Amino acid sequence: MRRWFGTLAGRTTAVIAAVATVAVVLAGLLAAQLVNATAVDEAKKYLAVEADSLSKQTSIGGLQDLRADLLTHGARLAQISTDGRVTGGGARLVDAKTVADVLAGKSVSTSVNGPQNTVVLEARPLAAGGGVVLAQPVSEIRAAAAPLLSRMLIALAVCLAFAIVAGGLLAQWLSRPLVRTAHSAHRLAAGERSVAVAPGGPAEVVEVSQALAALDAALRTSEGRQREFLLSISHEIRTPLTALRGYAEALADGVVSGDDVSGVGRTLVAETNRLDRFVRDLLELARLESDEFRLELQPVDASLILRESWQAWQAICVQNGIAGRLELPLGPLPVRGDGQRLRQVVDGLLENALRVTPEGSPVVLAAYLTGSGLTVEVRDGGPGLTEADAAVAFERGALFARYSGERPVGSGLGLSIAARIVQRMGGRISVRSAPEGGAAFVVELPGIPAGSRQT
């Protein structure tokens, strides 16, 4: 039972029952007041009509014929003689002020508060002298209305029971689609995918169902990409591991000796460096996606950083027969960022460009100031990227999975790392077609106020 009250249906039913109970209690109290007040008003009207009728009698003797009818309605009849004496069944309900007013020729319509009860009283003077009085205690009037009030309370109790039952059914109906949605969410949390979420119920529940279906689709897409990325990385790591194991076994078995040892050693070093690059990229990406990654954002001169980076890569351009070109304006390029991380981004983009650019084609490193800050471009004359490639270029392993085996590729993590670093520095990175025929990676970083620039 406690568990049921903890559900949405249980709580909704409890709230409906509480509200219905309060409403019925208030309606009952109001109905009792209205019934009693109406009964008293009707009794007053009846007594007034009868008193007016009795006042037209020519003598007190003629009043006796109406006594039975008055007693049937619970009214008491009393007569006031010309000397002020009060006689009859209602004599004890008549006060002295009423007697004086009637003897003075006045009609009286009032309620007299007695020691034990309130009395409704109607008195009229008679033409022959004296007067007639009709009186009835309020308690008797209310007692006469009690059966009607009891029936009303029974009706209210039936309405209360119906409201509680209807509320419980309504709560079950409202909570059923939400329970189905919660069940689907539990299945998603347990690792199940492509879970059908049946729409239905109120608009809010339908919206939750649609959001859950969208989450299911996003999880399938994300997990699919992660699976492809891990498969690609596993395959790429297995290649140098196979080479390392083969050469290591050859050395252990003495198959390689003499002058061949130095060549094998160079191969082992190259494959080890390749593995190291994979591990470093994975660690760097993990740090970027955690809260432990920190940047030292401060004013720096990007021109110095870009010239140092180009100087390091210029020799590789010459070795590979690539027409390298540096396009920087004269003077400093102030930017707010982390100099070391900016160098890392530029080195990564240049490495990618040199890897895919054929001999004789250009690679350009350019930078210029804009109204909002600094723009850095790395353009190449390689095969370029399609619009579909550009849409996923900065997702980890996306381009690696597409072009592994077709063109030279790295670990599949470099562009993802560059994008995250640029975002952490408050900038953005994009890719488009380059005038040189290949791809142009564009980094936009925020500038700094002129008064705080460093050269």
UniProtKB/TrEMBL annotation:
<keyword id="KW-0460">Magnesium</keyword>
<keyword id="KW-0808">Transferase</keyword>
<keyword id="KW-1003">Cell membrane</keyword>
<keyword id="KW-0597">Phosphoprotein</keyword>
<keyword id="KW-0812">Transmembrane</keyword>
<dbReference type="GO" id="GO:0016301">
    <property type="term" value="F:kinase activity"/>
</dbReference>
<dbReference type="InterPro" id="IPR003594">
    <property type="entry name" value="HATPase_dom"/>
</dbReference>
<dbReference type="InterPro" id="IPR003661">
    <property type="entry name" value="HisK_dim/P_dom"/>
</dbReference>
<dbReference type="InterPro" id="IPR005467">
    <property type="entry name" value="His_kinase_dom"/>
</dbReference>
<keyword id="KW-0843">Virulence</keyword>
<keyword id="KW-0904">Protein phosphatase</keyword>
<dbReference type="InterPro" id="IPR036890">
    <property type="entry name" value="HATPase_C_sf"/>
</dbReference>
<keyword id="KW-0067">ATP-binding</keyword>
<dbReference type="InterPro" id="IPR036097">
    <property type="entry name" value="HisK_dim/P_sf"/>
</dbReference>
<keyword id="KW-0346">Stress response</keyword>
<keyword id="KW-0547">Nucleotide-binding</keyword>
<dbReference type="Pfam" id="PF00512">
    <property type="entry name" value="HisKA"/>
</dbReference>
<keyword id="KW-0418">Kinase</keyword>
<keyword id="KW-0902">Two-component regulatory system</keyword>
<feature type="domain" description="HAMP">
    <location>
        <begin position="172"/>
        <end position="224"/>
    </location>
</feature>
<keyword id="KW-0464">Manganese</keyword>
<feature type="domain" description="Histidine kinase">
    <location>
        <begin position="232"/>
        <end position="449"/>
    </location>
</feature>
<dbReference type="InterPro" id="IPR003660">
    <property type="entry name" value="HAMP_dom"/>
</dbReference>
<feature type="transmembrane region" description="Helical">
    <location>
        <begin position="152"/>
        <end position="174"/>
    </location>
</feature>
<keyword id="KW-0472">Membrane</keyword>
<dbReference type="Pfam" id="PF02518">
    <property type="entry name" value="HATPase_c"/>
</dbReference>
<dbReference type="InterPro" id="IPR050980">
    <property type="entry name" value="2C_sensor_his_kinase"/>
</dbReference>
<dbReference type="InterPro" id="IPR004358">
    <property type="entry name" value="Sig_transdc_His_kin-like_C"/>
</dbReference>
<protein>
    <recommendedName>
        <fullName>Signal transduction histidine-protein kinase/phosphatase MprB</fullName>
        <ecNumber>2.7.13.3</ecNumber>
    </recommendedName>
</protein>
<keyword id="KW-0378">Hydrolase</keyword>
<dbReference type="Pfam" id="PF00672">
    <property type="entry name" value="HAMP"/>
</dbReference>
<keyword id="KW-1133">Transmembrane helix</keyword>
